[in-house]
Amino acid sequence: MRLYGVLVISHGSRDEGWVQLVEDAVNAVQMPDAMPIYASYLELVEGKLIQDGIYSLEAQGVTDIIVVPLFVSSGSTHIDEISYALGVIAEPVLETDMELLDIRARIHFTSPIDDHPDIAAILYGKIAELSESPQEEILLLVGHGSKEDGFHQKWRQGLTQLAERVRTLGGFAEADIAMLLPDQLASRLAWWAREKPAYKVIVAPLFLSEGYFTHGVIPSRLEGFAYKYHGRALLPSPQISKWIEGQIASVFPYDEQGMT
Questions:
Q1: Dihedral sign, CA of 142, 154, 137, 194?
Q2: Alpha carbon separation from 94 to 138, 237, 245 (Å, rounded)
Q3: Rounded to two decimals, what is the model's pTM?
């Protein structure tokens, strides 16, 4: 008999508030039947790392683990190393310190957030109050990004498609993207200041939780420009829990009664 469980993986943080936001989102997930779920972290959260989650689920008799990578982009290099450590891919694209994890269960690896419509709805909800005349506003979606070949392109694709979804929801005149790595934020703001000086730029951060990047890095790189920004990240939002539920449903083979 196959018993499914869910392992949600996010990056982790030394900030207890950051971790609690993730825990709250995972705890709010509506699970099929009595399927167990475990919030794990790549690093920085002692006792709640990926291997801890695997051991916990397997101790409950789980034979099949649905892995939900709670990362905002397939372009994250962490997705590459986690996939390798879980045995999803034979070799990582980039060198990693991660080693193969001790796993007996079957692994079902789902996808990161990328340009999911639910996430677009969250982003628009976070910035809606900043918009006054969307027909004269430019949405600038900012993500961490990557300089690595292949990973950069995945970041760009996901950000571009997600920005367009948010533009449509808000009726904004334009949608653009910028990555922090490589540093593109100032150049994009300067470009729009030249091309459409009468338009207002609304900056939306694509980060799971608020912290170092949303409160420090992004504002520091916006200095000297005109813009609207309040730095709200995806969490807290009940729609993150709904997104996790959708990832589970993409794998779990249950009928309308929820039976395997």
A1: positive
A2: 35, 33, 30
A3: 0.91
